[in-house]
Each structure stands twice: as C-alpha cells, then as structure tokens.
Amino acid sequence: MNQRLRKSILTLVCGVLAAATAIPKEQPARPDPRAKYRLCASQARMYDGYCMLSMVDLIANPELFDGAKVLVVGYVHVEFEGRGLYLHKDDFVYHITRNGLWLAETNIVDLTKCQDTYAYVKGIFRAGIGGHNDAWSGTLERVTTCDRIQPRR
C-alpha cells in the first residue's frame, strides 16, 4: 500500500508540474511603436513649434501627423504641375511621386532657391493623396522655410 501511495503522489506531482508549465505566461508589455512620435511635443520647443520627422514617418503614418507643423528633409524639385519634396533624388529622376510630398503654393518662401537639392522644409502636413493628379502621398501646406543642405566633404 505504501508503494501504491507513492506512485499516486508522484503521478499527482508530475501532473501538477506539467499543468503549471502549460499555463501561458503573460508576455511583457510591448512598447507602443508610436511612442516616439509623442516626442513631437518636446521637439516643438527646439524647432520653433515644428516636429522634426523623416519623410518615411510621414508616408508610413500619415494619420498621426495630419495637421501637424513638421520639419522634414527631402529632395526639392519645383516645376509646373510637379512641386515636390522627394525622399531621394532618384524618386524625382524616376518620377516616383508616392515617395514624396506635394509642396503647396506659398508666397512666404521662394522654393526655387532649393531647386534640385536636399533641403530642410517646414510646413503643415496634410495626410492623404494629393497634389497634381493625386499622385503624392501627402501635402506640405503653408511652407515657411526651405533651407538647402550642404553635402558632406
């Protein structure tokens, strides 16, 4: 009987251990991937009320920045029906307008001073397809700054 009791207890202990390891453990909370965008409030103090973002941020998450004052870097080209801030020069060369933002008309800044160069551009971001023939991934309105970037040496 003693042997039988031992087997029962051993079986019971093994069953409890197996059940305990089978219970899924709570996964640690994953950080919200959008948390970095909340830093815009602190950046606004550093950049005269503008949030510095990459073009990729704006194209990938337009709804997060709709109506925001943004400072973004890109390749500027201005022509009739083609006023754009592109992710890369090659996007301009190969007419990949979805990798760019339409630059709305502005009387504040002469965008031609940044023609065919990389530049810092400040404006109000509007999410959604826009620009000429709705070919662009968003629009920069009320552009207040267009500063050329000098290449590294």
Distance between the ends:
89 Å
How much of the polypeptide forms β-strand, as a percent range?
Answer: 25-35%
**Protein structure class:** alpha/beta
**Count of β-strands:** 6
Major β-sheet profile:
5 strands, mixed, barrel
Q: What's the tally of helices?
A: 5
Main sheet: strand order: 2-3-4-6-5
Defining key terms:
five-stranded mixed beta barrel; 153 residues; alpha/beta
Structure description:
The protein is α/β, with parallel strands linked by helices and 153 residues long. The chain is 28% helix and 30% strand. The chain contains five helices and six strands. The protein has a five-stranded mixed barrel. The mean pLDDT is 85.
Topology:
Blueprint (H helix, E strand, L loop, with lengths): L1 H21 L17 H7 L4 E3 L1 H6 L1 H4 L3 E9 L6 E3 L2 H5 L6 E4 L13 E14 L5 E13 L5
Compact overview of the structure:
This protein has 153 residues and is an alpha/beta fold. It has helices spanning 2-22, 40-46, 55-60, 62-65, 89-93; strands spanning 51-53, 69-77, 84-86, 100-103, 117-130, 136-148.
